[in-house]
Amino acid sequence: MNTNPEASNKIRRVLISGGGTGGHIHPALAIADEIVHRNPDVEIRFVGALGRMEMEKVPAAGYDIDGLWISGIERKINSLKNLSFPFKLISSLIKAGRLLRKYRPQIVIGVGGFASGPLLFRASKKGIPTLIQEQNSFPGITNRILANKVQTVCAGFPGLERWFPKERIVETGNPLRSNVLKLADSKHTPPKSESSAHFNFKNDTPIIFIMGGSLGAKSMNSAVKNVMEYYASLEQTKQVLPYSIIWQCGARFLDENLAWLKDFEKKHPKIARSVNCLGFIDRMDLAYAAADIIASRAGAMSISELALVAKPTILIPSPHVSEDHQTKNALSLVKRGASILVEDRHVVENLRVEIEDLLFDPEKCEAMMTALKTASRPNASVIIVNEVEKLLNQ
Q1: What is the per-residue DSSP string for 265-324?
Q2: Which ranges in the chain are annotated with CATH 3.40.50.2000?
Q3: pLDDT for 78
Q4: N or C: which end of the chain has fewer CB within 10 A?
Q5: What's the rounded Cα separation, in Å, for the pair 149 and 236?
Q6: pLDDT at 73
Q7: Do strands 313-315 and 340-341 pair parallel, antiparallel, or not at all (unpaired)?
């Protein structure tokens, strides 16, 4: 018989499920890292969707992962892909049950994405403690379905009472990667010269970091091209960029944009050398540290990281998300005076103007940076794991 009163909340076996985008994967890893920090001997396994990016990113971070044959329902209800959904769901529910029997987790944590649905549903039916972390101001469909089946909902934004039982919600903020969290402490911030050099830039011009999210964004890629073409259209003696650009275009758009950049360089080599085009950035800490101004999609994790990093920020919400939740995310900063919002339909023609307005307005930049710091939640992972321990104590 175990007589140690402290042993009840010791975390020994955990399953964490979800993924599909970096916005789900990164908080899952941050939660796992905090659990390991407190319980070095813990066994943590992930469950993801076969073929999605978590099947590569999670092992790269040092954790084991199992894959489910699952995907979402296409918005076009008559899509042929939807015909396989019932079979995928049944297969995933069966495999989820096997994984629960095999690993015997004390708790199952979901972070959103298709894969978390079958696992948390089966865990709740078996009486295993369950917790979800919702990153957005508008929950994804999987977490909405699980709303009344889990014991605790850790919310990245306020105002989720519309979808989840109020008594189960704990507002925690969104958990961030450890290398990004270090940027909140100036002692751990990489020197500008080091972070600039990582992207092959010298530390002698401002650096603009433009990112369209882990999947990329066509409109933002077009906006970068428009900036470059504008300066190329000036008189020959002025064909230089007054700043350097770290251009995160998305892995699926990388080949076409590198080809475009190569053709552009033939006529305008000075401008092209001021731009570094990348599909995916693993060292986000260095990108944030190098940047003087950041232009970004308004995904929940991006919002949380940008608040912590506290650099002058331009937000371009994606119009291709449910209930326009990225605009709601962005307004949480805009209302504080912590960011500028540019609508996606205007980003191609307006992004350059907004960047240059900020570059020449240091007082506005300073005010934005101060407002961003008040919005940051650097202890989200700690609070979430506290909630895990509370569940285990119950």
Answers
A1: HHH-HHHHTTEEEES--S-HHHHHHH-SEEEE---HHHHHHHHHHT--EEE---SSSGGG
A2: 7-176+378-393, 179-375
A3: 66
A4: N
A5: 64
A6: 63
A7: parallel
Q: How many CB atoms lie within 10 A of CB 109?
A: 33
Q: What dotted CATH number matches 179-375?
A: 3.40.50.2000
Distance CA 166, CA 132 (A): 14
**Residue among 98, 101, 100, 111 nearest 150 (CA):** 111
The Cα 79–Cα 391 span in angstroms is: 41
Residue with tokens 């992930």: 46
pLDDT under 70: residue ranges of the chain: 1-9, 72-80, 82, 186, 214-216
Residues 6+ apart with CB under 8 A from 39: 10, 11, 12
Best CATH choice for the domain 7-176+378-393 from the list 3.30.1440.10, 3.40.50.2000, 3.40.50.150, 3.40.630.30: 3.40.50.2000
Distance CA(338)–CA(298), nearest Å, equals: 13
Q: State both tokens at 71.
A: 């995907």
Q: How many CA atoms lie within 13 A of 125 on its CB side?
A: 11
| Per-residue model confidence (pLDDT) at position 2 | 42
HSE (side-chain half, CA atoms, 13 Å) at 24: 28
**What is the spatial distance between Cα 173 and Cα 165, in angstroms, rounded to a whole number?**
18
Residues 93 and 87: their CA atoms lie apart, in Å, by 10
